[in-house]
Design the sequence.
């Protein structure tokens, strides 16, 4: 939109409540002495949802963005009938992220990670000359690659070799997007380590992950979609989590919606899930520990190899810092649950049969835990339930289409030489 204006907001430290102006790419409060997230405090306290012409930016009142980027699509929420009836639920709402034109959603990377990418990249100053660095288990990389390619934003991706099959695209990417990988047997944490080494060069800057307000507030549009469609804040929120950032974002959106005053004062119970046997946050939560429990690196990598939902394999998530997942679960009377590959596969098949949409393993994990709660009688069947389907539609968009895959410029060992990494990534953008 030609008349689009940057959203007005300030920043607030969760740990100290100190408010301050955003002086650029701020990921922390420099004056805070404890690990803490910062939050955006938006000038508009009541959200005005724009027309669908704005795409994802229909929610721009509560996004820390300077501009609109090309090609975005917003999440879509609809009331389930067939699946709800099968489960005996009267008020099940599905927030769909992915590629499903018949439902009105056209995220061509098929993942709600597009909500992060369109928000984060629209926060970047157009005059920024440094290269954005993003580490990913796969779907985040695909989303950022697409958004940066379409909008000519320089990007360096770091991804585990075992997850490179996730980097498919319906057309070749702009040369502004580059990729490095850690060798086979590595996981998401190894990719993060590789990206951190690249950041030793002053030519690069970190996207920031959960610490980036734009990432969390982009993901929060799933809840904004649900609440503005339903007309009230749900009772339950279901999502599978790798880092927990999506659930943190849901909690933050919930608080803004209460302050809005038009959608009730309800606090959604955050019911998040992990894919067994990779369950580090579940283990910490069951131990009522704010800190993550010890997790042997070799075992973590083996467990990550075993799960279907590879995108959920973050062993160093933003769990215990102020405003992180632990606090979100405590504040919402939430819980962490677990689903096996077999349970998630059955749930995925059920969703395709009853809702007519092919979903990814991660949202299938969330659905599997909802099914278990229904079967155990531990959820009110008349409760207002939001199921965040975080990725869907790959079979639709890839059918009868030749795909293009992003290949790594170089594959590094799990203990890479620092100087080699730095010199390599600098040369890639020379």
Sequence:
């Amino acid at each position: 939109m030609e008349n689009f204006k940057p959203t007005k907001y300030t920043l607030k430290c969760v740990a100290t409540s100190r408010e301050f102006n955003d002086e650029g790419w701020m990921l922390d409060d420099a004056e805070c002495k404890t690990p803490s997230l910062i939050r955006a405090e938006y000038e508009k306290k009541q959200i005005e949802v724009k027309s669908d012409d704005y795409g994802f930016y229909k929610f721009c009142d509560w996004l820390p963005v300077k501009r609109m980027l090309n090609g975005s699509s917003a999440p879509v929420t609809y009331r389930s009938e067939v699946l709800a009836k099968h489960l005996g639920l009267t008020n099940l709402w599905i927030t769909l992220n992915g590629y499903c034109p018949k439902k009105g959603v056209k995220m061509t990377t098929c993942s709600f990670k597009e909500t992060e990418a369109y928000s984060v990249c629209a926060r970047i100053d157009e005059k920024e000359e440094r290269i954005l660095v993003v580490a990913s288990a796969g779907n985040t990389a695909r989303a950022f690659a697409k958004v940066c390619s379409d909008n000519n934003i320089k990007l360096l991706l770091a991804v585990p070799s075992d997850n490179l099959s996730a980097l498919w695209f319906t057309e070749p990417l702009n040369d502004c997007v580059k990729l490095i990988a850690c060798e086979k047997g590595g996981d998401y944490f190894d990719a993060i380590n590789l990206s951190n080494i690249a950041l030793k060069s002053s030519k690069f800057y970190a996207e920031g992950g959960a610490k980036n307000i734009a990432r969390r507030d982009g993901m929060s549009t799933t809840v904004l979609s649900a609440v503005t469609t339903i007309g009230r804040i749900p009772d339950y929120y279901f999502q599978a989590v790798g880092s927990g950032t999506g659930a943190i974002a849901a909690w933050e959106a919930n608080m803004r919606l209460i302050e809005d005053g038009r959608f009730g004062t309800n606090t959604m119970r955050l019911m998040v899930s992990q894919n067994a046997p990779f369950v580090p946050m579940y283990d910490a939560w069951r131990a009522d520990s704010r800190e993550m429990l010890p997790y042997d690196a070799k075992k973590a990598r083996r467990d990550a190899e075993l799960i279907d939902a590879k995108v959920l394999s973050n062993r160093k998530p933003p769990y215990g810092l102020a405003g992180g997942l632990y606090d979100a679960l405590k504040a919402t009377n939430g819980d962490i649950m677990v689903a096996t590959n077999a349970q998630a596969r059955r749930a995925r098949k059920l969703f395709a049969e009853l809702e007519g949409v092919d979903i990814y393993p991660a949202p299938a994990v969330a659905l599997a835990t909802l099914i278990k709660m229904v079967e155990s009688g531990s959820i009110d069947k008349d409760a207002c339930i939001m199921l965040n389907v975080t990725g869907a539609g790959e079979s639709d968009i890839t059918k009868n289409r030749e795909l293009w895959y992003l290949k790594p410029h170089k594959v590094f060992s799990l203990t890479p030489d620092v100087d080699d990494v730095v010199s390599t990534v600098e040369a890639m953008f020379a």
Q: What stands out?
A: The chain has two domains: 76-110+214-397, 131-202+400-430. The chain has a mean pLDDT of 96. The domain at 131-202+400-430 is CATH 3.40.50.1100 (Rossmann fold).
